[in-house]
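Figure caption, in words: inputs first, then the predicted bound structure.
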Amino acid sequence: MERDVAPALNLICDGCRKPITDDDGYLWVNTTEVRRTEESVRAWEAERTDADGSLSFSGGDIFDYPEKVRWQAHHARCDPAPGARAYDIPAAKIRSWEQLLDWTAHLMEKSWLPHTDWDDCLRGVHQGGGRLVLAVEAGAPIS
Ligand SMILES: [Zn+2]
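Bound structure (zinc ion present):
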């Protein structure tokens, strides 16, 4: 990979809260949980679908809507579920804004993406505090 400038983004480990540098970690989502959520959403909709095929629900029903599956960031050594079925993005491949955009475009092709919190993952990257944060020396040339 091209490395004439420092990476713009840092993935922060959910386990030890330290940045994941290059090849020792990933951003991942548990695909077993995603499938389960997909099924729950289908059931939720089926329960509220009228005979004519239209969906009708009250405001309170929203609270029963299945929770999105969280994207997690971990060093390989901090991964609490190393054997889990997962879709993962290696930390080294999500270090620039361009890569983040490309991943987002790629993930948008997945029918299961809306059942994950990718939106929350993107939200506020530029403000810090999330799983993906701005690298301190973004854009600085590597000496
Ligand atoms: Zn860690």
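The mean pLDDT is 87.
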